[in-house]
Amino acid sequence: MARAWIGGKPAALERALTEAAGLLAVARCPLIAGLGTDIAGARAAIRLAEQTGGVIDHMNSDTLLRDLAVLREAGMMMTTPNEARLRADTLLLVGPSLEKDASDPSRWLGLDSSGKGDAVEKRSLARLCPGGAVTIPGEAVVNCGVDRLPVVLAALRARLRGRRVATTGVPAKTIDDVATLLKAARFGVAMWSAADLDAPAIEMLCGIVADLNAETRFTGIALPPANNAIGVLQACGWMTGFPMRTGFGRGHPEHDPWLHDGARMMATGEADCVVWISAYGAAAPRWPDGTPVIALTAGEAVPAAGPAVQIEVGRPGLDHDGVEHCPMLGTLLAVAATQPSETTSVADAIGGILAAMPGTQVPA
Amino acid sequence: MKTRIAGGRVIDPANGRDEIGDIWISDGRIIEAPPPGTTPDASYDAAGKIVMAGAIDIHSHIAGWNVNTARLLLPEFHRAAAARPAATPLSNAGWSTFATGCLYAQMGFTTVVEPAVSPHYALHAHLELADIPIIDKATLAVLGNDDFLLGLMRERDSGSAVEDYVAWTLDATRSLGVKVVNAGGSLALKANVRQFAFDDVVPHYGVSSREIVKTLQRATHALGVPHPLHVHCNNLGMAGSDASALTTIAAAEGLPLHLAHLQFYGYGKEGARGFSSAAPRLAEAVNAAKSVTIDVGQVMFGQTVTISLDTLRQFNSRGHARPRKWVLLEGDANGAGIVPYDYRASDFYNAVQWAAGLELFLLIDDPWRVFFTTDHPNGAPFTTYPDIFALLMDRDLRAQQIAALPPDAMAVTTLPAITREYTLTEIATMTRAAPARLLGLTDRGHLGAGAIGDVAVYADERDRAKMFRAAALVFKDGELVVREGAVTGYRWGRALTVRPARDRAIDQRMTRYYEDRYGLSDAFLKVPDRAIGRPEPFELVRCAR
User: For every residue of A174-193, which 3-state class applies, written as one string?
Assistant: First the structure.
């Protein structure tokens, strides 16, 4: 049974959809934020943003756009975790975030060599600023604070090119041990999380990867942000040409990472109506007072301050079928509902809002 | 509902027709002209205009991870230009799926094949295709750098396992045919091999590029898949790459084989710079090899981006990126490389490339075996097609453009001496009748009774580029979708697929393989109808077997 609330009071779904449509119809600058949803939900959200002249942003855009900044400024070499598990004889793991939560690289990359393909004889490991206690015999480790990673990466790149480096706060031999290990790779993979590195540091790491290819083979993996950020990015890319933080205020898609930063738009009051989408259970931010919020949330992900309209949505792959990005394979995957329920999907909820708005032009 | 397109010059080479006449459409299909006196529900005046079937593009990179990553790599190249047109949401984004469908439809194209889909990315590709309005689509599944196939070949599996695997892949990925991209080359690159030719052997697997191509060619043929194996040869883009193409053409050995974007192999080593057009040699070989078809991959001058599953080639060309940024994905099997490039009219090499493509068009004598592509966007965006039609149809226009190009470049080609001009019938053959036959689409590419009501009507202008850029009328499944070069509204097309018969034992084998190798169900690369989010997203094309 679909659950919905208007002003915190239980309401029929149809009434909640109509109420949401009414709020959006009078909004001058709606913000479609959160965007923790499957591909169908993302497609619907983008249609809603175009229809209302609004802005789309994703709750993990900060980290996503750090990697994307490097991609579109300098380019990038990349592979999938699965290909790394099967093929890599050398792994360079950068930063503590890799070893948190679901991103456990020992599972992804088979650090114990259990999953490696038959073309790989043995596997070497180097870690910069590791976050976990797991060690592997023979691994090269640089222990330093996250804030030192840019310096360590710069020093490592310089040493790989045979240049001298000034003090880095880390023993020179430690850096050289990592350099030696990387140079001995036959197919190496560097992995990082943009949660630990700023864009220049990511670019430095990608530069290390590119440099190593002068002699051997090396590539990289950026840890995908949560909440299907990469899946939403893909849909946003093919529908608008651009990543999230794209607005339709002037009738065509315009991407601007600062102007269309959802958190900034809320803090400054630029957004006069917010649609918050969170179908994977991520918590909502704290809303500014006075801005009407339409919350499409799953499970316990209830906004801190009471939203004007709230609709409970299902979780992709749990309540309903969906398509989402699979980090292990680096591609979009159809997921089937494991506990099918009557809960409405994000796509259907937005479809209902659009249908309740006058003059809707829906391309589907 | 009967629609009449009245009094145009109907050019329908598949049915040997070139005459003033009417086309009648009923319930989405072309019908025989009804008895005189029948009143149509809608009638469109085509007097003085040219009427052709909807055009078919057999090779254009319009969807999937690679295309989308190119969009994200180059935001500065596709800013939206205009405020939104009310009838067609998102069609004003500079480079969106919505714009792609509109731009194709405006030129009278109604079916387009995305020719490079790695099986693991098939769902993504189909989701993008589903958001391309108006036109019908299809994908080719790329094999030949995949561990499973090369594993079978390494074990010298002599049974029908390869055929069953190809059939399984086509079914799982909802594809229309099979392509091989630099067979073995992407696997070789992963082993740090930087040059890879037709008789080189893939490290670890011990099979040659030739063996992979021949294995897939035979399997595709044996399965009765209408479209022959679609081959992207080794050594693309290099001086002397004509040898790769000639070797591959010879290896067809009388069985059907399609060579993609042959222009990119049309380079010899003659001349002061060691780079020359080898297009005449290639054209001669194609003319002689009757089982071989090719598409051109014409280069046109301007900024573009190269998008290819040939990771070896893209890796080696990374230093030529203009602007200086590029992406290389070494994914399962092929992976992908994206390298932006600016073809310049003042550049000797780019001018030779431009000429070599036109030479292929003009020196291959059978328009049923040479296909119209720019390898979009690798040689040029598909929006340049009208300009290429004009060049093929007008030797004076060619002479004007040749005069503006570096003379030393033109000196290593034969283009200035070629006088042939394509006729409208040859254009219709190359872009309608022949592609339908090549893909096994019996109800497309022609205007006979029973054909799908895909019709393009053009003003018969002296300026052929203008004529083909903006069709006067376009019908898709009998529905008017373009009027005077402008899209009138959206409708949603289908993706064409084949499903050749297979021994179902392969299904269990693939399940085991994916569980062992990926720790996942093989279901992940299957493309279910329900995931696409549109009604009836697929249409099945019959196989010969």
Answer: HHHHHHHHHHCCCEEEEEEC
Strands B495-498, B136-143: pairing is parallel
State whether A80 and B332 contact (CB < 8 Å).
Answer: yes
Q: A214: which chain B residues are within 8 Å (Cβ-Cβ)?
A: none
- Using alpha carbons only, give the angle A325, A326, A327 rounded to the nearest 5 degrees: 110
What is the domain class of B52-495 according to CATH? Answer: alpha beta
Give A-chain residues touching B124 at CB under 8 angstroms. 234, 331-332
**b or e along B96-119 (b: 16 or more beta carbons within 10 Å of the residue's beta carbon)?**
bbbbbbbbbbbbbbbbbbbbbbbb
At the fourth CATH level, which superfamily is domain A65-222? Dimethylsulfoxide Reductase, domain 2 (3.40.228.10)
What CATH fold (topology level) applies to the domain A4-60+227-355?
Rossmann fold (3.40.50)
Q: What is the pLDDT along chain A (364 residues), one digit of tens a residue?
A: 679 999 989 999 999 999 999 999 999 999 999 999 999 999 999 999 999 999 999 999 999 999 999 999 999 999 998 899 889 999 999 999 887 755 566 666 766 656 667 667 788 999 999 887 666 777 899 999 999 999 999 999 999 999 999 878 899 999 999 999 999 999 999 999 999 999 999 999 999 999 999 999 999 999 999 999 999 999 999 999 999 999 999 888 999 999 999 999 999 999 999 999 999 988 888 877 889 999 999 976 555 568 999 999 999 999 999 999 998 889 999 999 999 999 999 999 999 999 999 766 554 4
Beta-strand runs (E) in B97-170 = 109-117, 136-143
- Tell me whether residues A243 and B72 touch, CB distance under 8 A: yes
Q: Is B139 helix (H, G, I), strand (E, B) or coil?
A: strand
Q: Determine the distance in angstroms separating the CA of A308 from the nearest CA of chain B, rounded to an integer.
A: 29
Give alpha helix (H) positions in chain A.
Answer: 13-26, 39-52, 61-74, 81-87, 105-108, 149-160, 172-183, 199-212, 229-240, 262-268, 346-355
Under an 8 A CB cutoff, do A119 and B530 touch? no
CB spacing of A239 vs B326 below 8 angstroms: no
Each domain of chain B, given as residue ranges in start order, spans 52-495
Q: Any CB–CB contact under 8 A between B526 and chain A?
A: yes
CA-nearest of B19, B12, B88, B26 to B54 is B12
Alpha-carbon span B273 to B539, nearest angstrom: 50
